[in-house]
Amino acid sequence: MQAKEVEKIYRLANLSLEGKDVEDLSNKFNIVIDFIENIFDVDTENVEMTESIDAHKAIFRKDEPKESSSRDEALKNAPDKEFGYFRLDWNL
């Protein structure tokens, strides 16, 4: 991962890079990405599955309708808005 990609990820997450070493972050991201790529190379052909999603019991709450947030309330912390909607910078 290049420094430019790290900067884009931080912008998208609304995080500040101020005081951070972008090259160091880039190296750390690359270590994680390499580790994940290695996971896909592990041979699990004869490994018995140890956990199944079927074994989990999901607890559902009753769906109860309630008052929605007003548009002003929903947009009050938006960093950029236009015509009553969130505005996104597609060039990030």
UniProtKB/TrEMBL annotation:
Tagged with keyword Membrane: no
Catalytic reactions of this protein: L-aspartyl-tRNA(Asn) + L-glutamine + ATP + H2O = L-asparaginyl-tRNA(Asn) + L-glutamate + ADP + phosphate + 2 H(+); L-glutamyl-tRNA(Gln) + L-glutamine + ATP + H2O = L-glutaminyl-tRNA(Gln) + L-glutamate + ADP + phosphate + H(+)
Record has Nucleotide-binding as a keyword: yes
EC identifiers of the protein: 6.3.5.-
Swiss-Prot/TrEMBL keywords: ATP-binding, Ligase, Nucleotide-binding, Protein biosynthesis
SUPFAM superfamilies: Glu-tRNAGln amidotransferase C subunit
Domain of life assignment: Bacteria
Function: Allows the formation of correctly charged Asn-tRNA(Asn) or Gln-tRNA(Gln) through the transamidation of misacylated Asp-tRNA(Asn) or Glu-tRNA(Gln) in organisms which lack either or both of asparaginyl-tRNA or glutaminyl-tRNA synthetases. The reaction takes place in the presence of glutamine and ATP through an activated phospho-Asp-tRNA(Asn) or phospho-Glu-tRNA(Gln).
Complex and partners: Heterotrimer of A, B and C subunits.
Entry similarity comment: Belongs to the GatC family.
Protein name: Aspartyl/glutamyl-tRNA(Asn/Gln) amidotransferase subunit C
Species in which this protein is naturally found: Anaerococcus cruorum
